[in-house]
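Hi R.,

As promised on Friday, here is the backbone we talked about, encoded as C-alpha coordinates. Could you run it through your design pipeline when you get a chance and send me back a sequence?
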Protein backbone atom coordinates (compact mmCIF):
# COMPACT_ATOMS: atom_id res chain seq x y z
CA UNK A 1 0.00 0.00 0.00
CA UNK A 2 2.82 2.37 0.94
CA UNK A 3 4.64 1.59 -2.35
CA UNK A 4 1.46 2.29 -4.32
CA UNK A 5 0.95 5.65 -2.63
CA UNK A 6 4.61 6.57 -3.23
CA UNK A 7 4.29 5.71 -6.89
CA UNK A 8 1.12 7.80 -7.20
CA UNK A 9 2.82 10.71 -5.47
CA UNK A 10 5.80 10.55 -7.83
CA UNK A 11 3.47 10.36 -10.81
CA UNK A 12 1.56 13.42 -9.63
CA UNK A 13 4.80 15.35 -9.12
CA UNK A 14 5.96 14.41 -12.60
CA UNK A 15 2.60 15.48 -14.02
CA UNK A 16 2.80 18.84 -12.26
CA UNK A 17 6.31 19.44 -13.53
CA UNK A 18 5.25 18.48 -17.03
CA UNK A 19 7.96 15.84 -17.35
CA UNK A 20 7.66 12.14 -18.13
CA UNK A 21 8.31 9.61 -15.38
CA UNK A 22 10.88 7.79 -17.48
CA UNK A 23 13.21 8.89 -20.25
CA UNK A 24 14.74 6.92 -23.06
CA UNK A 25 18.04 8.75 -23.64
CA UNK A 26 20.49 7.88 -26.41
CA UNK A 27 24.15 8.88 -26.48
CA UNK A 28 24.49 11.49 -29.21
CA UNK A 29 28.10 12.70 -29.16
CA UNK A 30 31.16 12.06 -27.02
CA UNK A 31 34.90 12.66 -26.82
CA UNK A 32 37.52 10.09 -25.89
CA UNK A 33 39.01 12.49 -23.38
CA UNK A 34 40.02 16.05 -22.63
CA UNK A 35 41.74 17.68 -25.64
CA UNK A 36 45.47 18.26 -25.39
CA UNK A 37 46.27 21.55 -23.72
CA UNK A 38 43.17 21.57 -21.47
CA UNK A 39 42.76 20.48 -17.86
CA UNK A 40 39.69 19.85 -15.72
CA UNK A 41 39.10 22.52 -13.07
CA UNK A 42 36.01 21.00 -11.50
CA UNK A 43 32.24 20.75 -11.79
CA UNK A 44 30.44 23.80 -13.11
CA UNK A 45 28.26 25.63 -10.60
CA UNK A 46 24.69 24.28 -10.87
CA UNK A 47 23.16 27.74 -11.14
CA UNK A 48 25.60 29.00 -13.76
CA UNK A 49 23.77 30.00 -16.95
CA UNK A 50 24.63 28.17 -20.15
CA UNK A 51 23.85 29.58 -23.56
CA UNK A 52 23.03 26.55 -25.68
CA UNK A 53 22.12 26.08 -29.31
CA UNK A 54 20.25 23.31 -31.03
CA UNK A 55 20.75 22.39 -34.67
CA UNK A 56 17.89 20.56 -36.32
CA UNK A 57 18.61 17.99 -39.01
CA UNK A 58 18.51 19.63 -42.42
CA UNK A 59 16.17 18.06 -44.94
CA UNK A 60 18.00 17.55 -48.23
CA UNK A 61 21.73 18.11 -47.84
CA UNK A 62 22.60 15.52 -50.49
CA UNK A 63 20.63 17.44 -53.11
CA UNK A 64 22.26 20.70 -51.98
CA UNK A 65 25.68 19.15 -52.55
CA UNK A 66 24.65 17.83 -55.96
CA UNK A 67 23.40 21.23 -57.05
CA UNK A 68 26.45 22.98 -55.62
CA UNK A 69 28.73 20.83 -57.76
CA UNK A 70 26.43 21.22 -60.76
CA UNK A 71 26.66 25.04 -60.74
CA UNK A 72 30.38 25.04 -59.81
CA UNK A 73 31.85 22.56 -62.29
CA UNK A 74 33.01 24.22 -65.54
CA UNK A 75 32.03 21.24 -67.69
CA UNK A 76 28.43 21.31 -66.41
CA UNK A 77 25.68 22.81 -68.54
CA UNK A 78 24.52 24.62 -65.39
CA UNK A 79 27.91 26.15 -64.55
CA UNK A 80 27.41 29.62 -63.09
CA UNK A 81 23.63 29.23 -62.76
CA UNK A 82 23.72 29.83 -59.03
CA UNK A 83 20.74 29.14 -56.80
CA UNK A 84 18.62 31.83 -55.19
CA UNK A 85 18.34 32.32 -51.45
CA UNK A 86 14.84 30.84 -51.51
CA UNK A 87 15.96 27.78 -53.48
CA UNK A 88 18.76 27.03 -51.02
CA UNK A 89 16.50 27.53 -48.01
CA UNK A 90 13.90 25.21 -49.47
CA UNK A 91 16.55 22.50 -49.86
CA UNK A 92 17.93 22.58 -46.33
CA UNK A 93 15.02 23.68 -44.13
CA UNK A 94 14.25 21.00 -41.52
CA UNK A 95 11.11 18.95 -42.08
CA UNK A 96 7.93 19.88 -40.26
CA UNK A 97 8.20 16.59 -38.35
CA UNK A 98 11.60 17.66 -37.01
CA UNK A 99 10.34 21.12 -36.10
CA UNK A 100 7.32 19.68 -34.32
CA UNK A 101 9.35 17.06 -32.44
CA UNK A 102 11.91 19.54 -31.15
CA UNK A 103 9.31 22.18 -30.29
CA UNK A 104 7.27 19.61 -28.35
CA UNK A 105 10.36 18.63 -26.36
CA UNK A 106 11.21 22.28 -25.66
CA UNK A 107 7.66 22.97 -24.47
CA UNK A 108 7.67 19.84 -22.32
CA UNK A 109 10.77 21.16 -20.56
CA UNK A 110 9.54 24.77 -20.21
CA UNK A 111 12.19 26.15 -22.54
CA UNK A 112 11.63 29.25 -24.64
CA UNK A 113 13.97 29.03 -27.63
CA UNK A 114 14.71 31.66 -30.26
CA UNK A 115 15.19 30.89 -33.94
CA UNK A 116 18.56 32.25 -35.11
CA UNK A 117 18.82 31.08 -38.72
CA UNK A 118 16.85 31.87 -41.85
CA UNK A 119 15.69 28.28 -42.33
CA UNK A 120 14.84 27.64 -38.70
CA UNK A 121 17.45 24.92 -38.30
CA UNK A 122 19.27 26.70 -35.43
CA UNK A 123 17.64 27.57 -32.11
CA UNK A 124 19.13 29.19 -29.01
CA UNK A 125 18.13 29.23 -25.35
CA UNK A 126 19.58 29.64 -21.87
CA UNK A 127 19.35 27.22 -18.95
CA UNK A 128 21.28 26.69 -15.72
CA UNK A 129 23.96 24.01 -15.66
CA UNK A 130 21.81 21.79 -13.46
CA UNK A 131 19.02 21.72 -16.02
CA UNK A 132 21.43 21.22 -18.94
CA UNK A 133 22.92 18.22 -17.13
CA UNK A 134 19.43 16.80 -16.67
CA UNK A 135 18.22 17.52 -20.21
CA UNK A 136 21.19 15.87 -21.88
CA UNK A 137 22.48 13.37 -19.31
CA UNK A 138 25.62 15.48 -19.34
CA UNK A 139 28.32 16.45 -16.89
CA UNK A 140 29.12 20.08 -17.65
CA UNK A 141 32.42 20.99 -16.03
CA UNK A 142 34.92 23.82 -16.13
CA UNK A 143 37.98 23.21 -18.30
CA UNK A 144 40.96 25.52 -18.60
CA UNK A 145 43.28 26.04 -21.54
CA UNK A 146 46.61 25.64 -19.77
CA UNK A 147 48.60 28.06 -21.90
CA UNK A 148 46.20 31.00 -21.99
CA UNK A 149 44.14 30.43 -18.85
CA UNK A 150 40.93 30.57 -20.91
CA UNK A 151 38.10 28.71 -19.18
CA UNK A 152 35.12 27.02 -20.81
CA UNK A 153 32.18 25.00 -19.55
CA UNK A 154 31.97 21.79 -21.56
CA UNK A 155 30.95 18.16 -21.27
CA UNK A 156 32.72 15.10 -22.66
CA UNK A 157 29.47 13.47 -23.74
CA UNK A 158 25.77 14.15 -23.99
CA UNK A 159 22.60 12.27 -24.86
CA UNK A 160 19.28 13.22 -26.41
CA UNK A 161 15.82 11.69 -26.05
CA UNK A 162 15.26 8.77 -28.39
CA UNK A 163 12.29 10.55 -29.94
CA UNK A 164 14.61 13.35 -31.13
CA UNK A 165 17.00 11.08 -32.99
CA UNK A 166 16.84 11.92 -36.68
CA UNK A 167 15.45 15.35 -35.81
CA UNK A 168 18.13 16.93 -33.61
CA UNK A 169 21.53 17.22 -35.25
CA UNK A 170 23.61 18.57 -32.35
CA UNK A 171 23.76 20.65 -29.20
CA UNK A 172 26.41 23.37 -28.98
CA UNK A 173 28.64 24.08 -27.14
CA UNK A 174 28.96 20.66 -25.57
CA UNK A 175 31.95 18.57 -26.66
CA UNK A 176 33.49 21.31 -28.86
CA UNK A 177 36.32 23.03 -27.04
CA UNK A 178 37.60 26.53 -27.81
CA UNK A 179 40.98 26.87 -29.44
CA UNK A 180 42.41 30.15 -28.11
CA UNK A 181 45.59 29.90 -30.14
CA UNK A 182 43.71 29.01 -33.29
CA UNK A 183 41.49 32.05 -32.92
CA UNK A 184 44.37 34.42 -32.40
CA UNK A 185 45.56 36.34 -35.47
CA UNK A 186 47.33 33.87 -37.71
CA UNK A 187 50.76 35.42 -38.01
CA UNK A 188 54.20 34.26 -37.02
CA UNK A 189 56.41 37.33 -37.03
CA UNK A 190 55.94 40.12 -34.49
CA UNK A 191 55.39 43.67 -35.60
CA UNK A 192 58.72 45.45 -35.66
CA UNK A 193 59.74 49.03 -36.30
CA UNK A 194 61.18 49.77 -39.70
CA UNK A 195 62.67 52.80 -41.37
CA UNK A 196 60.05 55.10 -42.84
CA UNK A 197 61.84 55.88 -46.13
CA UNK A 198 60.53 52.85 -47.99
CA UNK A 199 58.90 54.59 -50.95
CA UNK A 200 61.44 53.44 -53.51
CA UNK A 201 61.60 49.90 -52.13
CA UNK A 202 57.82 49.60 -52.25
CA UNK A 203 57.78 50.16 -56.00
CA UNK A 204 60.77 48.07 -57.08
CA UNK A 205 59.88 44.40 -57.61
CA UNK A 206 63.46 43.29 -56.82
CA UNK A 207 62.78 44.11 -53.17
CA UNK A 208 60.13 41.41 -53.08
CA UNK A 209 62.77 38.90 -52.02
CA UNK A 210 62.84 40.52 -48.57
CA UNK A 211 59.65 42.57 -48.13
CA UNK A 212 56.21 42.08 -49.66
CA UNK A 213 54.08 45.08 -50.60
CA UNK A 214 51.11 45.48 -52.96
CA UNK A 215 53.54 46.28 -55.78
CA UNK A 216 55.29 42.97 -55.19
CA UNK A 217 52.08 40.98 -55.34
CA UNK A 218 50.97 42.86 -58.44
CA UNK A 219 54.24 41.96 -60.10
CA UNK A 220 54.43 38.34 -58.94
CA UNK A 221 50.82 37.46 -59.79
CA UNK A 222 50.11 39.94 -62.60
CA UNK A 223 47.40 41.63 -60.54
CA UNK A 224 46.07 44.61 -62.51
CA UNK A 225 45.98 48.17 -61.19
CA UNK A 226 42.91 48.84 -63.32
CA UNK A 227 39.99 49.97 -61.21
CA UNK A 228 37.02 47.60 -60.83
CA UNK A 229 33.75 48.95 -62.17
CA UNK A 230 30.94 46.86 -60.67
CA UNK A 231 29.70 48.15 -57.31
CA UNK A 232 27.60 45.03 -56.77
CA UNK A 233 30.76 42.91 -56.59
CA UNK A 234 31.59 43.01 -52.87
CA UNK A 235 34.44 41.45 -50.90
CA UNK A 236 33.90 40.71 -47.20
CA UNK A 237 36.64 40.47 -44.57
CA UNK A 238 35.63 38.87 -41.28
CA UNK A 239 37.14 39.93 -37.97
CA UNK A 240 36.96 38.31 -34.53
CA UNK A 241 38.29 38.61 -30.95
CA UNK A 242 38.22 42.41 -30.89
CA UNK A 243 40.54 42.83 -33.84
CA UNK A 244 39.89 46.37 -35.07
CA UNK A 245 40.72 47.73 -38.52
CA UNK A 246 42.18 51.21 -38.20
CA UNK A 247 41.20 53.78 -40.84
CA UNK A 248 44.19 56.06 -40.19
CA UNK A 249 46.59 53.14 -40.63
CA UNK A 250 44.88 52.23 -43.90
CA UNK A 251 45.29 55.79 -45.12
CA UNK A 252 49.01 55.70 -44.25
CA UNK A 253 49.33 52.33 -45.99
CA UNK A 254 47.68 53.57 -49.19
CA UNK A 255 49.67 56.81 -49.15
CA UNK A 256 52.87 54.77 -49.11
CA UNK A 257 52.00 51.83 -51.32
CA UNK A 258 49.12 52.84 -53.63
CA UNK A 259 49.92 56.38 -54.74
CA UNK A 260 47.77 55.84 -57.85
CA UNK A 261 44.50 55.74 -55.87
CA UNK A 262 42.97 58.05 -53.28
CA UNK A 263 44.42 57.56 -49.82
CA UNK A 264 40.89 58.06 -48.50
CA UNK A 265 39.74 54.79 -50.09
CA UNK A 266 38.38 52.62 -47.30
CA UNK A 267 36.02 49.83 -46.30
CA UNK A 268 32.49 49.82 -44.97
CA UNK A 269 31.83 48.47 -41.50
CA UNK A 270 29.27 45.84 -40.55
CA UNK A 271 28.91 44.53 -37.00
CA UNK A 272 27.50 41.39 -35.44
CA UNK A 273 27.18 40.07 -31.88
CA UNK A 274 27.99 43.44 -30.40
CA UNK A 275 31.02 43.90 -32.60
CA UNK A 276 32.62 47.32 -32.96
CA UNK A 277 35.65 48.90 -34.60
CA UNK A 278 37.51 51.20 -32.24
CA UNK A 279 39.69 53.77 -34.00
CA UNK A 280 42.02 54.24 -31.03
CA UNK A 281 45.49 53.64 -32.50
CA UNK A 282 46.49 51.56 -29.48
CA UNK A 283 43.66 49.13 -30.25
CA UNK A 284 44.50 48.62 -33.93
CA UNK A 285 44.61 44.89 -34.68
CA UNK A 286 47.40 43.18 -36.58
CA UNK A 287 44.99 40.79 -38.28
CA UNK A 288 42.28 43.34 -39.04
CA UNK A 289 44.78 45.87 -40.41
CA UNK A 290 46.53 43.24 -42.52
CA UNK A 291 43.29 41.96 -44.02
CA UNK A 292 41.80 45.36 -44.82
CA UNK A 293 45.04 46.95 -46.03
CA UNK A 294 45.70 44.15 -48.51
CA UNK A 295 42.13 43.80 -49.79
CA UNK A 296 41.58 47.54 -50.22
CA UNK A 297 45.17 47.88 -51.46
CA UNK A 298 45.03 45.05 -54.01
CA UNK A 299 41.41 44.72 -55.15
CA UNK A 300 41.42 48.19 -56.70
CA UNK A 301 37.92 49.64 -56.74
CA UNK A 302 36.20 46.57 -55.28
CA UNK A 303 33.88 47.51 -52.38
CA UNK A 304 35.32 45.93 -49.21
CA UNK A 305 33.14 45.21 -46.16
CA UNK A 306 34.76 44.60 -42.78
CA UNK A 307 32.48 42.42 -40.63
CA UNK A 308 33.44 42.84 -36.98
CA UNK A 309 32.03 39.97 -34.90
CA UNK A 310 31.83 40.67 -31.17
CA UNK A 311 31.54 38.38 -28.17
CA UNK A 312 27.82 38.77 -27.44
CA UNK A 313 25.94 35.44 -27.56
CA UNK A 314 29.23 33.60 -27.84
CA UNK A 315 31.05 31.18 -25.59
CA UNK A 316 34.35 31.12 -27.38
CA UNK A 317 35.35 28.69 -30.07
CA UNK A 318 33.37 28.45 -33.27
CA UNK A 319 30.18 30.23 -32.27
CA UNK A 320 31.43 33.36 -34.04
CA UNK A 321 31.70 31.31 -37.24
CA UNK A 322 28.13 30.07 -36.73
CA UNK A 323 26.80 33.56 -36.22
CA UNK A 324 28.72 34.85 -39.22
CA UNK A 325 27.45 32.25 -41.66
CA UNK A 326 23.88 32.59 -40.38
CA UNK A 327 24.10 36.38 -40.70
CA UNK A 328 25.42 36.27 -44.26
CA UNK A 329 22.98 33.53 -45.29
CA UNK A 330 20.10 35.85 -44.38
CA UNK A 331 21.32 38.46 -46.87
CA UNK A 332 19.43 38.72 -50.14
CA UNK A 333 22.67 39.69 -51.90
CA UNK A 334 25.67 38.30 -50.00
CA UNK A 335 29.23 39.35 -50.88
CA UNK A 336 30.77 37.44 -53.77
CA UNK A 337 33.95 36.67 -51.83
CA UNK A 338 34.49 36.17 -48.09
CA UNK A 339 37.98 35.86 -46.60
CA UNK A 340 38.69 34.69 -43.06
CA UNK A 341 42.10 34.39 -41.41
CA UNK A 342 41.08 32.45 -38.32
CA UNK A 343 40.63 28.74 -37.71
CA UNK A 344 40.52 25.88 -35.25
CA UNK A 345 42.19 22.51 -34.87
CA UNK A 346 39.74 19.95 -36.18
CA UNK A 347 40.21 17.60 -33.22
CA UNK A 348 38.90 20.16 -30.71
CA UNK A 349 35.42 20.19 -32.20
CA UNK A 350 32.39 18.00 -32.64
CA UNK A 351 32.31 16.25 -36.00
CA UNK A 352 28.58 17.04 -36.19
CA UNK A 353 29.33 20.74 -35.78
CA UNK A 354 32.09 20.60 -38.40
CA UNK A 355 29.71 18.97 -40.88
CA UNK A 356 26.94 21.45 -40.08
CA UNK A 357 29.21 24.45 -40.63
CA UNK A 358 30.61 22.89 -43.79
CA UNK A 359 27.09 22.46 -45.15
CA UNK A 360 26.46 26.14 -44.39
CA UNK A 361 29.44 27.04 -46.59
CA UNK A 362 27.96 24.80 -49.28
CA UNK A 363 24.74 26.83 -49.09
CA UNK A 364 26.62 30.06 -49.74
CA UNK A 365 28.70 28.43 -52.47
CA UNK A 366 25.53 27.35 -54.25
CA UNK A 367 24.47 31.01 -54.24
CA UNK A 368 27.71 32.08 -55.93
CA UNK A 369 29.86 32.99 -52.93
CA UNK A 370 33.56 32.11 -52.77
CA UNK A 371 34.48 31.09 -49.20
CA UNK A 372 38.21 31.46 -48.46
CA UNK A 373 40.02 30.55 -45.23
CA UNK A 374 43.68 30.72 -44.26
CA UNK A 375 44.91 27.15 -43.70
CA UNK A 376 46.78 27.92 -40.46
CA UNK A 377 50.34 28.51 -39.35
CA UNK A 378 51.49 25.34 -37.60
CA UNK A 379 52.62 23.24 -40.55
CA UNK A 380 51.35 19.70 -40.07
CA UNK A 381 50.76 20.38 -36.38
CA UNK A 382 47.67 22.45 -37.08
CA UNK A 383 46.85 25.95 -36.03
CA UNK A 384 49.99 27.32 -34.39
CA UNK A 385 50.60 24.23 -32.25
CA UNK A 386 53.52 21.85 -32.00
CA UNK A 387 52.72 19.22 -29.36
CA UNK A 388 51.48 16.23 -31.34
CA UNK A 389 52.34 12.71 -32.42
CA UNK A 390 49.90 12.50 -35.33
CA UNK A 391 49.37 15.36 -37.76
CA UNK A 392 46.64 17.82 -36.80
CA UNK A 393 44.28 19.01 -39.56
CA UNK A 394 42.61 22.39 -39.20
CA UNK A 395 39.01 23.46 -39.59
CA UNK A 396 37.41 24.66 -41.77
CA UNK A 397 40.22 23.80 -44.20
CA UNK A 398 39.12 20.17 -44.11
CA UNK A 399 35.63 21.12 -45.32
CA UNK A 400 35.31 20.23 -49.03
CA UNK A 401 32.97 23.16 -49.78
CA UNK A 402 35.37 26.05 -49.19
CA UNK A 403 38.82 27.03 -50.49
CA UNK A 404 41.77 26.66 -48.16
CA UNK A 405 44.70 29.00 -48.80
CA UNK A 406 48.27 28.08 -47.86
CA UNK A 407 51.44 30.16 -48.05
CA UNK A 408 54.60 30.52 -50.10
CA UNK A 409 57.66 32.69 -49.68
CA UNK A 410 60.60 33.85 -51.72
CA UNK A 411 60.76 34.95 -55.29
CA UNK A 412 62.11 33.39 -58.50
CA UNK A 413 61.13 30.72 -57.69
CA UNK A 414 58.53 30.70 -54.97
CA UNK A 415 58.84 27.97 -52.37
CA UNK A 416 56.51 26.60 -49.73
CA UNK A 417 56.45 28.54 -46.47
CA UNK A 418 57.33 26.11 -43.70
CA UNK A 419 54.49 27.37 -41.48
CA UNK A 420 51.84 26.68 -44.13
CA UNK A 421 49.33 24.35 -42.46
CA UNK A 422 48.28 21.45 -44.63
CA UNK A 423 47.29 17.84 -44.48
CA UNK A 424 44.23 15.62 -44.57
CA UNK A 425 40.94 15.85 -42.69
CA UNK A 426 39.86 13.18 -40.25
CA UNK A 427 36.20 14.25 -40.58
CA UNK A 428 35.71 14.71 -44.33
CA UNK A 429 36.45 12.26 -47.14
CA UNK A 430 38.27 13.15 -50.35
CA UNK A 431 35.79 15.01 -52.61
CA UNK A 432 35.44 13.83 -56.19
CA UNK A 433 37.01 16.96 -57.65
CA UNK A 434 40.20 16.22 -55.70
CA UNK A 435 40.48 12.45 -56.02
CA UNK A 436 43.05 12.36 -58.81
CA UNK A 437 45.22 15.12 -57.34
CA UNK A 438 45.35 13.60 -53.85
CA UNK A 439 45.88 10.02 -54.98
CA UNK A 440 48.74 11.14 -57.21
CA UNK A 441 50.44 12.91 -54.32
CA UNK A 442 50.01 10.03 -51.87
CA UNK A 443 51.44 7.61 -54.41
CA UNK A 444 54.46 9.86 -54.95
CA UNK A 445 54.85 10.29 -51.17
CA UNK A 446 55.23 6.58 -50.59
CA UNK A 447 55.81 5.51 -46.99
CA UNK A 448 56.81 8.97 -45.76
CA UNK A 449 54.67 9.97 -42.75
CA UNK A 450 52.80 6.68 -42.91
CA UNK A 451 50.30 6.35 -40.03
CA UNK A 452 50.46 10.04 -39.16
CA UNK A 453 47.65 11.20 -41.43
CA UNK A 454 44.35 10.03 -42.89
CA UNK A 455 45.09 8.98 -46.47
CA UNK A 456 41.35 8.91 -47.29
CA UNK A 457 40.67 12.42 -46.01
CA UNK A 458 40.04 15.66 -47.87
CA UNK A 459 43.41 17.26 -48.56
CA UNK A 460 44.22 20.94 -47.98
CA UNK A 461 45.19 23.63 -48.81
CA UNK A 462 43.79 24.05 -52.31
CA UNK A 463 45.93 26.97 -53.42
CA UNK A 464 48.55 29.34 -51.99
CA UNK A 465 49.97 32.82 -52.31
CA UNK A 466 52.82 34.72 -50.70
CA UNK A 467 52.60 34.71 -46.91
CA UNK A 468 55.86 36.05 -45.49
CA UNK A 469 57.26 39.51 -44.76
CA UNK A 470 54.10 41.45 -45.58
CA UNK A 471 54.53 45.15 -44.89
CA UNK A 472 51.63 46.61 -42.91
CA UNK A 473 50.93 49.69 -40.80
CA UNK A 474 49.94 49.26 -37.16
CA UNK A 475 49.37 52.20 -34.88
CA UNK A 476 51.20 54.45 -37.35
CA UNK A 477 54.28 52.22 -37.50
CA UNK A 478 55.46 50.08 -40.39
CA UNK A 479 56.26 46.44 -39.74
CA UNK A 480 56.12 42.97 -41.27
CA UNK A 481 53.82 40.01 -40.73
CA UNK A 482 54.07 36.33 -41.67
CA UNK A 483 51.27 33.80 -41.99
CA UNK A 484 48.60 32.28 -44.16
CA UNK A 485 46.49 35.21 -42.95
CA UNK A 486 48.47 37.18 -45.53
CA UNK A 487 47.61 34.65 -48.21
CA UNK A 488 43.83 34.48 -47.91
CA UNK A 489 43.13 38.22 -48.43
CA UNK A 490 45.61 38.23 -51.32
CA UNK A 491 43.71 35.47 -53.10
CA UNK A 492 40.39 37.10 -52.19
CA UNK A 493 41.53 40.26 -53.97
CA UNK A 494 42.50 38.35 -57.10
CA UNK A 495 39.19 36.45 -57.21
CA UNK A 496 37.27 39.70 -56.65
CA UNK A 497 39.01 41.35 -59.59
CA UNK A 498 38.23 38.32 -61.76
CA UNK A 499 34.60 38.53 -60.65
CA UNK A 500 34.50 42.19 -61.63
CA UNK A 501 35.57 41.32 -65.17
CA UNK A 502 33.11 38.43 -65.36
CA UNK A 503 30.16 40.51 -64.17
CA UNK A 504 31.11 43.32 -66.57
CA UNK A 505 30.99 40.74 -69.37
CA UNK A 506 27.51 39.63 -68.33
CA UNK A 507 28.70 36.43 -66.66
CA UNK A 508 28.27 34.99 -63.20
CA UNK A 509 30.86 35.36 -60.43
CA UNK A 510 33.07 32.35 -59.82
CA UNK A 511 31.33 31.14 -56.66
CA UNK A 512 32.66 27.90 -55.18
CA UNK A 513 36.16 27.77 -56.66
CA UNK A 514 37.47 24.26 -56.13
CA UNK A 515 35.92 22.35 -59.05
CA UNK A 516 37.31 25.04 -61.36
CA UNK A 517 40.73 25.11 -59.69
CA UNK A 518 41.12 21.34 -59.85
CA UNK A 519 40.03 21.17 -63.50
CA UNK A 520 42.75 20.97 -66.12
CA UNK A 521 41.97 24.50 -67.27
CA UNK A 522 42.06 25.93 -63.77
CA UNK A 523 45.17 24.11 -62.61
CA UNK A 524 47.01 25.15 -65.77
CA UNK A 525 46.50 28.80 -64.79
CA UNK A 526 48.44 28.30 -61.55
CA UNK A 527 52.17 28.32 -60.80
CA UNK A 528 53.14 24.89 -59.48
CA UNK A 529 55.33 25.04 -56.34
CA UNK A 530 57.69 22.09 -56.02
CA UNK A 531 60.09 22.96 -53.20
CA UNK A 532 59.77 23.37 -49.44
CA UNK A 533 57.78 21.57 -46.76
CA UNK A 534 55.66 22.23 -43.66
CA UNK A 535 57.38 20.62 -40.63
CA UNK A 536 55.63 19.88 -37.35
CA UNK A 537 54.93 17.12 -34.83
CA UNK A 538 58.65 16.37 -34.73
CA UNK A 539 58.79 15.65 -38.47
CA UNK A 540 59.65 17.42 -41.70
CA UNK A 541 55.96 17.41 -42.56
CA UNK A 542 54.82 17.07 -46.15
CA UNK A 543 57.13 17.99 -49.03
CA UNK A 544 55.92 20.14 -51.88
CA UNK A 545 55.86 18.17 -55.13
CA UNK A 546 54.79 18.59 -58.74
CA UNK A 547 51.03 18.95 -58.93
CA UNK A 548 48.89 19.28 -55.82
CA UNK A 549 50.49 18.95 -52.39
CA UNK A 550 49.31 19.51 -48.78
CA UNK A 551 51.60 22.53 -48.36
CA UNK A 552 50.81 24.85 -51.28
CA UNK A 553 47.86 23.07 -52.85
CA UNK A 554 47.76 23.36 -56.63
CA UNK A 555 50.15 26.32 -56.61
CA UNK A 556 49.89 30.10 -56.78
CA UNK A 557 47.66 32.24 -59.04
CA UNK A 558 48.45 34.15 -62.20
CA UNK A 559 45.76 36.73 -62.91
CA UNK A 560 46.32 36.84 -66.68
CA UNK A 561 46.19 33.06 -67.01
CA UNK A 562 43.13 32.85 -64.79
CA UNK A 563 41.41 35.54 -66.81
CA UNK A 564 41.87 33.42 -69.90
CA UNK A 565 40.86 30.27 -68.04
CA UNK A 566 37.50 31.80 -67.07
CA UNK A 567 36.84 32.67 -70.70
CA UNK A 568 37.82 36.34 -70.85
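Update: got your reply. Pasting your designed sequence below so it's all in one thread:
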Amino acid sequence: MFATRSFLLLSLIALVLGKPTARNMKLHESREGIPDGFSLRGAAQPDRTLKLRLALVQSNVAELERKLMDVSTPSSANYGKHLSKAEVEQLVAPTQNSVDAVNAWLKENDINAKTISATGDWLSFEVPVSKANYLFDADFSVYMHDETGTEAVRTLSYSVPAELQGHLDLVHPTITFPNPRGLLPVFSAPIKAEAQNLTSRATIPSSCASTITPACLQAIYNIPLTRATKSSNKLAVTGYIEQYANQADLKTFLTRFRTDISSSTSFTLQTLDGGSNSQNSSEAGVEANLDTQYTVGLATGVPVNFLSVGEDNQDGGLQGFLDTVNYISKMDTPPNVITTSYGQNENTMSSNLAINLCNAYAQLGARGVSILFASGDGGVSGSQSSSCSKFVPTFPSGCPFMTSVGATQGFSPETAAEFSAGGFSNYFAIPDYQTSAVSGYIKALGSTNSGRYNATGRGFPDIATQGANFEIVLGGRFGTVDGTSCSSPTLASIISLLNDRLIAAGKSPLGFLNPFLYSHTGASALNDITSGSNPGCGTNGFPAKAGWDPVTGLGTPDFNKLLKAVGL
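One thing I noticed while checking it: Residues 484-504 form the longest helix (21 residues).

Thanks again,
M.
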